Amino acid sequence: MGPVEIDLRAINRGTVTAPAGCGKTQLIAHALAGHRGSKPILVLTHTNAGVAALRGRLDRAGVPTSAYRLSTIDGWAIRLISVFPGRSAHNPEILQLAAPARDYPAIRDAAWRLLQAGHISEVLKASYAHLIVDEYQDCSVPQHHIVYFLSLILPTCVLGDPMQAIFGFRGNTLVDWNQQVCAHFPVVGELTTPWRWRNAGAEALGQWLLEARGVLAAGQSVDLRSGPPKHVTWMQALPPNDHAQRLAAARAVPPTADARVLIIADSRNRAAQQNFASQIPGASTVEAVDLRDLIAFANGFDERSFDALGQLLALAQSVMTNLGVPEFTRRLGSLQRGTARNPPSVAESCALAFAQSPSLSGAAELLSALRAQPNVRVYRPAILYGVLKALRDASSGTVSLAEAARRVREENRLLGRPLPKRAVGSTLLLKGLEAEVVVLMNTEGMSAQHLYVAMTRGSMKLVVCSANPTVG
Amino acid sequence: MARIRKIEIANFRGIQRLAWCPAPGINCLIGPGDSGKSSVLDAIDLCLGARRNVQFSDADFFGLDITSPISITLTLGGLDDAMRTLESYGAFLRAFDATTGAVEDEPSVDAEVVLCLNLTVASDLEPSWTLVSERAAQQGIVKTLAWKDRVALAPTRIGAFANFNLGWQRGSVLNRVSEERADASAALVKAARDARSAFGDQAEQQLGEALGIVTDTAQELGVNIGAKAKALLDSHSVSFGGGTISLHNESGIPLRGLGVGSTRLLVAGLQRQAAGKASIVLSDELEYGLEPHRIARFLGSLGAKEDAAPLQVFLTTHSPVALRELSGGQLFVLRHSPQGHEACLVGAGNGIQSTIRLYPEAFLAGSVVVCEGASEIGLLRGLDLFSLDQGGVSLAALGVALIDCGGGDPDRPYARAAAFQTLGYRVMVLRDDDKKPTPAIEQAFVESGGAIVAYRAGRALEDELFGSLTPDACKKLITYANELHGDLIIEHLRTASNNTLTFQQVWDEIQNTGALAAERRAILGQAARIRKAGWFKSISWMEDVARTIVAPDLPHCNPGFRALMDQVFGWAANGPR
Questions:
Q1: CA–CA separation, B430 and A113 (whole Å)
Q2: How close, in Å, is residue A118 to chain B by CA atoms?
Q3: Quick one: which of B373, B386, B385 has its CA closest to B430?
Q4: Angle at CA of residue B351, ends B348 and B352, nearest 5°
């Protein structure tokens, strides 16, 4: 990448506004790489995935690990209060995280109160040279309090973009950008070079997105026809053919052989996302890190119950296409009665064996055999492979299936997720991920922020399905 | 710069228990012998020194009781930032309140961040160093100082053999003065090769016979050594170990050859240069090998005269010269108390600083006699010298020091005495009775264990002497005064007696009756102590009088006066040695 516009280490207390794809991570890497001195810079962000992504970038940039400490805000808060339990005076049980919805808020409150009291200010000054907080728009109010009190102790620079604030749900009120963030951390700079698109040879798209960001931020609509035609495609989707039109849009051909396509569907409708994935050739879903369907299956599955086979087939149907479950079930019936004319297929043998003597390993074999059938396509690989791994881990009998599934989930959380070549998800799931092509399946009901996040996921091409050419 | 804020010792050698908050600069421990001063220095060295192996024996346990573990805890403040980070020792960072000396388990907004390092030795004699915090113990976290931090904190010991520090050995102060290191290994290897070739075949000529035998024997037995055996310099014997680089003077003489004192002085100076890196210094018997003027330079180079102490120094001394160079804020008296050991700050109150300057010996003794004035000092010294002549034991040998209050306010001796009392010394006040002290003050002194010897009703020393000694001795007193002051004393007698008494009359009375009446004795006493012209009012005059006149007369004189003197010397003889 090119020259760095702003020196984060020179900022004593301030905000750098960082629109998507404008080299924010590079800016952080540059600041850390240039850091000399015995104390590391503390870098905080929001999610484990964010930590993993940033660490990867820093490693690739050759930033020495001694130059920084990288953590999530919550992870750092947990560490802080557990080192000073007496001053923090929290209930020790909250650190067990048995009830995350209750414990995380308690941890955040304990942490900012501990910082506010001033007992450990000297320790923090001795520990870190500077504080950098990434993705600041995703801060909840208590997290902002933590950073606020830290900024009274350490020189602090926060980076973020109010136009990418999409994580405010019920019970997770985000910090108010103007009232709270900019009031305490004055804006000292804004990134203006669309590096992501420039590097992809699509600078016109990048510039247009920066303009669109301004339009959206002002509460106005963006006319998709004003975009550079080479990079921006509007496809009208009108009932009653809108579903077919959207599916056609989702088949957008990537510009190069190994380019990836992100397909963004309705955030609030998981079923619609999965439905699209099953109907779009080569597509698979991006799953939320809680892998809810994996956990639900593992909690509910009992290989000895009478409908264990039915549960397995239902799961298989929810993650693979072209299984032909009704026909498969009919064949099993006739095979069991001895009336079938054709011998059983591999998958059918596995199902019969499982019905005969149910076991977790048998269940795993059945799922593998189903997947191996011709024409079958996995469209929710994260769930299927998670279930398979949990079944195999639990088959030795040392852990329960439910526990094995939880471990798989935690492992995935830490390792992050490989992005499929044609991935179906939502703004919430795909934020922070990027591909060459992005397809917005439905702009209805999307806020300006959701729209901006979605539109900026593709570095070469943007395809939007909507009823009107103006969106937002 | 690192400082020891608190020292806690349990069951180590002669110390069952000690808790002491030392000063950030000079800490000179004084006190009677065997009070444990050196053990305190050893405890610091063992706990904080960068040694991997320390040998302990049963004798290191208090009372040889190995069931009570040795425990030494140092609370360390003034830490470098790197030692008080969340990551390094987060769960062990504590707070130290300088005003109360209390350690809190977690940092506090208005207290210093400290680490507590503990050394424990149990009956297996294995030392274990750990950082201490209650919360870490609860969470089962065990950690000790990283080796690099121990090296950084390690105190420098300026011992009797300080010349260890004059080479670049590991742990030498030279390694702390700068980061430079010489690499001699290549040069040494080359030197070894050169030596081998220079020595060459010389050995062969000297050892020809033996070589011939070896060659023949080997050939007989079919051991292949070539045509003949050779004798060369063994390359192993010309290899050098590490630490081979040391300081030399201009003519190439090793500085190791300097005298003990010069070496210690130089090392102290170097330590001062290295203060930024290692800021704690230990020196037992600081005066060792040093002439008096060099004691002052030694202490000066350790920062004794500076307001912002560059080093934290732990010293012991038995030298009055050293004491005179220090202030009350730098001196601590270490002694036994019912609760174990205690280290009391001498401090600067109650005119103690001038006492340190004038009577440093007093702080090195076990018992102190506070004398109202110079006459009392002279009296006791003279009696003491006489007793010494007779083969007795001197006051000094009994560990008794005398200090002079210089007369004046009758309460003054008690102020001075109280200062010594609070430091744990045995104290006696010897005073005259012509001006009486405040009863309550005297009472408090006695209740704190003080002893008082006062002349009898209303008398000053001269009254006691002329009132108590035999007439013969009284004559000698007058003769001595006459030698000192000539006819002046005639005037004094005339004034004191309102022209009613002459020396001739005194002489006649003694000649004729062999006695001296009480009225005449009283007048003589008054004459001898006329203001500003006392016949014996100097330490040396009174010392001479006491030695030559009073002491020989004591067995024959008034028993009341004899009892007073016996009281003083009896008390002196009963002190702890």
A1: 64
A2: 5
A3: B373
A4: 55
CB burial of B177-214 (b: ≥16 within 10 Å; e: otherwise) equals beeeeeeeeeebeeebeeeeeeeeeeeeeeeeeebeeb
For residues B577 and B568, what is the distance between their CA atoms, to the nearest angstrom?
16
Q: Which residues of B touch A87 (CB under 8 A)?
A: 106-108
Top residue of A43, A78, A120 to mutate, by most chain B CBs within 10 Å, is: A120
The Cα of B70 is separated from the nearest Cα of chain A by a number of Å equal to 29
Contact B107 A122 (CB under 8 A): yes
Tell me which chain A residue has its CA closest to the CA of residue B80: A126
Q: How many angstroms separate the CA atoms of B135 and B228, rounded?
A: 75
**Scanning every residue of chain A, which has its alpha carbon at the shortest distance from the alpha carbon of B134?**
A86
User: What whole-number distance in Å separates Cα of residue A448 and Cα of residue A164?
Assistant: 9
Sign of the alpha-carbon dihedral angle for A384, A389, A392, A397: negative
Average pLDDT over residues A381-385: 93
Neighbours of A89 (CB within 10 A): 12
Q: pTM of the prediction?
A: 0.78
Q: Which chain A residue is nearest to residue B92, measuring alpha carbons?
A: A83
Q: Which of A122, A152, A154 to mutate to test the interface with B (most CBs of B within 10 A)?
A: A122
What secondary structure letter does DSSP report for B64?
Answer: G
- Least Cα separation, residue B147 to chain A (angstroms): 18
Integer Cα distance of B488 and B484 in angstroms: 9
Structural tokens at position B51: 């040694």
Q: CA–CA separation, B192 vs B241, rounded Å?
A: 12
Q: CB-CB: which of A39, A83, A122 is closest to B91?
A: A83
CB contact under 8 A, B84 and A119: no
| Distance in angstroms (rounded) separating the CA atoms of residues B270 and B263 | 11
Hey, which residues 73-132 in chain A have their CB within 8 Å of chain B?
79-80, 82-87, 117-128
CA dihedral B318, B320, B321, B323 (to 10 degrees): 90
Cβ separation B109–A117 shorter than 8 A: yes
Q: Tell me how close the Cα of A39 comes to any Cα of chain B, in angstroms.
A: 8
- Apex CA B281: angle with CA B278 and CA B287, to 5°? 150
Calpha distance B373→B392 (Å, rounded): 25
| Half-sphere exposure for A202 (CA within 13 Å, toward CB) | 25
Cβ–Cβ of B86/A39 closer than 8 Å? no
Closest partner CB to A123 (pick from B82, B84, B105): B84
pLDDT in tens for each of the 577 residues of chain B?
899 999 999 999 989 999 999 999 999 999 877 778 889 999 999 999 888 778 888 889 998 898 999 999 999 999 989 899 998 899 999 999 999 999 999 999 989 999 999 999 998 899 999 999 999 998 888 999 998 888 888 888 887 666 667 777 766 777 777 777 777 667 777 777 777 777 777 777 778 888 888 888 887 777 777 777 777 777 666 555 555 677 777 777 777 777 777 777 777 777 777 766 678 988 888 888 888 888 888 888 888 888 888 889 999 998 899 998 898 899 999 988 777 888 888 887 767 888 888 888 888 888 999 999 899 999 999 999 999 999 999 998 888 999 988 878 888 899 889 888 888 889 999 999 888 899 999 999 999 999 999 999 889 999 999 999 999 999 999 999 999 999 999 999 999 999 999 999 999 999 999 899 999 999 999 999 988 889 999 999 999 999 999 999 999 999 999 999 999 999 999 887 5
Rounded-to-integer distance, Cα B104 and Cα A162, Å? 44
> For residue A211, what pLDDT is reported?
95
Cβ–Cβ < 8 Å for B543, B364: no
Cis peptide before A240 (omega within 30 of 0): yes
Helices (H), B234-302: 260-273, 292-301
